Amino acid sequence: LQGDHLLVEAPTGIGKTVAALLPALRYALASDKKIFVLTAKTLQQEMATHVLELLTKSESSFHSLRLRAKAKMCANDQLLCHEEYCRFAKDYYSKLHGSGLVPELLASNGLLLPDQIFESAGQAEVCPFEVSLELTGKVQVVVCDYNYAFDPYVGLSEFHPENDLSNVILIVDEIHNLVGRGRDYYSPSISSRQAREALEFIRKGSEAVHRAASKLCGDLADLIDRTVEVAMEEVPGSTRATEAQLPEAELWSLRPAFDETFIDYLEHRKETSSFRPDDPFVDLYFTQLRFLDGLLRSTGEAFSHCVETSPQGGTLKILCKDPSAFLGQVLNRTHSVIGLSATLSPTEFYRDLLGFDPERTANLSVPSPFPPENRRLVIDDSVATLWRKRPENYPRIAANLAEFAEKVPGNCLALFPSYQFLNEVSQRLTLKNKRVVIQRSAGTDRERDEILEGLRSALAGDVLLLAVAGGVFAEGVDYPGDMLKAVAIVGPCLPAVSLEQELLKRYYDERFERGFEYAFVVPGMTRVVQAAGRLIRSAGDTGVIALLDERFLVAPYRNHLPGDWLPEEGLEGLTGEPGQAAKEFFSSAAARPRAGSRKT
Question: How far apart (Å, rounded) are the C-alpha atoms in residues 572 and 337?
Fold first, then answer.
């Protein structure tokens, strides 16, 4: 914490968050520093909040706050932040100061949670989200999403480029996710479909402003489609996407008219009291602004300009291949950063793509403290999941997975590279003693919670949950008690082949000379290791991890398996039938006394 950064790679379940937060908090309180705990998923925020709740009981001299997304803190249920349409925005500052709400909340509890803030703000008739922002400046610890530190459009004011961060300590949970998230922040896109949807919406009006806006929407849609059509014709063999020169001059030439019409449009909405939260023209205007802003940033080898076509129309894209310059501007202005993950290998890949200053950054790798005999790892090399081999392997994968699940005396989690792969296997599954629960691609937080509650209450552990690697059931979620007894991971879970991944591969080849490994193998195997980490999270946990694919036995995939997974005789000693391995493991485990119980 003496002004350096630390990247910590340690197994899941050993308490990385509390191990980092407790000493950081003591140091912050003693030296007048502030801590932000940044996470990629809501479930990770819940875990961090639980740690803070425990620390608050033993140390009452600090305040902490969990920051919830604006959309979920809107008391008006419309996200329409205008005092003429929202009573919670009207006279906000006078009502806030007159109510004494902020000091009242600070006096009421050391840990401030969104539900409490929402209820109290509602009673005072002030915006709950704005109250949350007021509180972030008065607490010592803030738990929030990555967005509030790194997204250039929604970041907290403390993280603006001109502000000093020398008193800030960042604890970044599952920091391996920040590479992809960072690329997304600086990879805007704009589509003709969105422009035409705005056109269809706006042309329903009969005023001059509607006609002007309709023309601009149509002009923008035509420009996008024309650009994509020409680009695709110039690259023989391209069927869906290609690199292309974007029409920057034409896009900028539309900007003045968009600005003028947008102002007139808002005035019309105000005069006619017709504001609405989901306005396609307003959304298109801000999408255009972000895209133009992206054009200003996207210079150099770290960016590619692309186009994509689909039945719904064309899309212009900016691809950020390397977000290190932007992420590093935040990370290296702070007093210190502690990055936590179970998967930070190769360390130079993450250090460099996250933008850490090598002179200030140290790495720490913590071995697993859990008894190796509590876990059985088996590699099923009788199946192949390469794209071209999948159709002929679907039946065998389904049969092996079913046999594996039937031999496990408890709930099982099976993870796939994609929803399509999951669906193909699920249609061929036949089980007698397990209920199959399937993650939906458009699932909500409520559906996620219902599935997790179903696993907790499953009689005799009779559930096989099919989900996608990298999703909400595979990372950042805990399965306490005997909620989960086995995990099966189907294939190395590589990202799908796409223009973006191929451009990343080319970039990584030029920078690291390890293009395929860094663009495909590293993110895929990171998902594998993260998924396997859901199972063994305490000294008392037992279970079986099954890896279904022959590729796990060969380089470069085998090089990214954790060292403590490997037996003395090498990976070949792990090959076998998952069902038989589960049967043998649980039969022998039943005869052994349990070392302890799972920590919740």
Answer: 39
Angle at which helices 324-331 and 347-354 cross, to 10°: 80
Structure tokens at 354: 């996250």
Q: What is the number of H-type helices and E-type strands within the chain?
A: 21, 18
- Rounded alpha-carbon distances, angstroms, from residue 328 to 150, 159, 352: 10, 12, 9
- Three-class DSSP category at 375: strand
Q: By mean pLDDT, which of 143-152, 228-237, 329-338, 579-588 is the weakest?
A: 228-237
Q: Does the pLDDT value for residue 445 go beyond 80? A: no
Whether 340 has a pLDDT exceeding 50, the answer reads yes
d(CA 87, CA 74) in angstroms, rounded, equals 11
Partners of 575 in the β-ladder = 379
- Angle, CA of 305, 311 and 316, to the nearest 5°: 15
> Distances in Å between the alpha carbon of 290 and those of 47, 255, 286, 576?
33, 12, 6, 52
Q: Does residue 171 contact residue 340 with C-beta atoms inside 8 Å? A: yes
- Where do we find the tokens 């803190």? 73
Q: Are 534 and 496 in contact (CB under 8 A)?
A: no
The alpha helices in 280-389, defined as continuous H runs, are 280-297, 324-331, 347-354
Q: What angle do CA 437, 443, 447 make, to 5 degrees?
A: 65
CA pseudo-torsion sign 306, 312, 313, 315 = negative
Q: Which of 49-63, 182-196, 202-216, 275-289 has the lowest mean pLDDT?
A: 49-63
**Three-point CA angle 60, 63, 68, nearest 5°:** 140
Residue matched to tokens 């996008």: 224
- List, as one string, the DSSP characters of 476-535: S----TTS--EEEEES--PPPP-HHHHHHHHHHHHHHS-HHIIIIIHHHHHHHHHHHTTT
Cα dihedral 97, 103, 106, 112 in deg (nearest 10): -10
CB 122 within 8 A of CB 11: no
Give every strand in the sheet of 543-548, ordered side by side.
375-380, 543-548, 486-490, 412-416, 463-468, 435-438
Single-letter residue type at 508: Y
Q: Could you tell me if 380 and 571 are in contact, meaning their C-beta atoms sit under 8 angstroms apart?
A: no
C-beta atoms surrounding 177 within 10 Å: 22
Task: Look at residue 523 in the predicted model and tell me its pLDDT.
Answer: 94
